[in-house]
Amino acid sequence: MTRAMPPAENPRAASPVAAVAVDNNAMARPGDFPGIELLHTRRLRLRGFCARDLPGLLRLGQTTRVTERLLDQPLSTLLEVCAFIDWINRFYRQHPGLGIWHAEAVDKGFIGFFSLMPEQESGEISLGARMLPSAWGRGYSLEGGAALCEHAFGALQLPQLIGQCDPGNRSVPPLLARLGFTPDGETMQAGKPALRFVLRRQDWNGIRRRGRAGRPDSD
């Protein structure tokens, strides 16, 4: 659950970086985007990204421990982050209920992002998350992931969700299993091999209890 894909309608999109058209005037625009809340849980709030979120996104994209297992390219420059914020706010308007959302914890502030984004070729909706290391091991990915599953299958009435991760990422498969995702083979994503998981709406029953072999999530 470490990636967030760009919109399916962009034929060149292979990452959040590739999905945005760089706008050199983005930083100079007056005001800010509204940052409308999508949902909140006991400990988390997910909302739209704003220009004021630029420092946190830049820190996330420049943290090696975060980026070393990504399937897509991180947002690692000021220009890329500015363009991303401009693009994702257009995406919110064009695709209500889908997107990449700023995640903040009540006791920690910005911790990363969560996403529900369409895959480029298939149009399937992929669940994703990306957390700063300071937020790992606290169950935020499980809590936010469950809230987005509820949103996807309840408010949006999606038939299924998929999840993907780098084969070497050992924390994501048990996390997805606790949400009810089941393995669905391997695929290629952005030119890299990826494990694929699927959760159908009729199989969504909330967070499952950890099995003996369960591992704490580190995202």
Strand order of the largest sheet: 1-2-3-4-5
Class by SSE composition: alpha+beta
The largest pleated sheet is described as: 5 strands, antiparallel
The CATH topology assignment is Aminopeptidase
Task: Tell me the count of domains.
Answer: 1
Our Rg estimate from Cα atoms comes to: 16 Å
Q: What is the end-to-end distance?
A: 8 Å
Oligomer: single chain
Name of the level-1 CATH class = Alpha Beta
| Strand runs, count | 8
CATH architectural name: 3-Layer(aba) Sandwich
Q: Describe the global form.
A: globular
Name of the CATH superfamily: Gcn5-related N-acetyltransferase (GNAT)
Main features:
219 residues; alpha+beta; Aminopeptidase; 5-stranded antiparallel sheet; 3-stranded antiparallel sheet; globular
Structure, described:
The protein has 219 residues and is of the alpha+beta class. The chain has a single domain, classed as Aminopeptidase (3-Layer(aba) Sandwich), CATH 3.40.630. It has 6 helices and 8 strands, in the order H-E-E-H-H-H-E-E-E-H-E-H-E-E. The strands form 2 sheets. It has a 5-stranded antiparallel beta sheet, with helices on both faces. The longest helix is centred in the middle third of the chain and has 17 residues. The termini are close together. The N terminus and C terminus are likely disordered.
